[in-house]
Sequence to fold (150 residues):
Amino acid sequence: MNMPTKMAALAAAAAVLYGCAHFSGVSSLRGVDVAAVDKAPAEQKVYVGKRPGVGQLIARTFDGQPPLVPHAVDNFDEITVTDNQCLECHSPETAKAKNAPVVADTHLVADKHTINDARYQCNTCHVPQVDAPPLIANSFVGTPSQPVKR
Fold:
């Protein structure tokens, strides 16, 4: 196909897409006109006022799910190579005294007291929750796993 033919085909495809995107009366699954600009939902505060140690542990919905963080983390410092505030309560040495769940053995190296560098960035898997209604209806029912050990 030569260049003018390619350009004509591209222009025709663009016209079709433009017409589809601006077709009146068509709405998205969110219930808005497809041509409307998406609006971000309002920012939610994560567990406002819930200090570590006062919230209830959140049940896991399937085996292997990382535990969810049941307390605010917005006042925590960023996790860096030299500082991880999560470990002030959840390390093997401090968890019992703080009445906090201890990190799993899978997060430790052979000596069972040192955090594996590959598991040091806690908030990659363990996320805080938001006290907010779901954005869309959800009928998911997980397979409850074993209770979280403290």
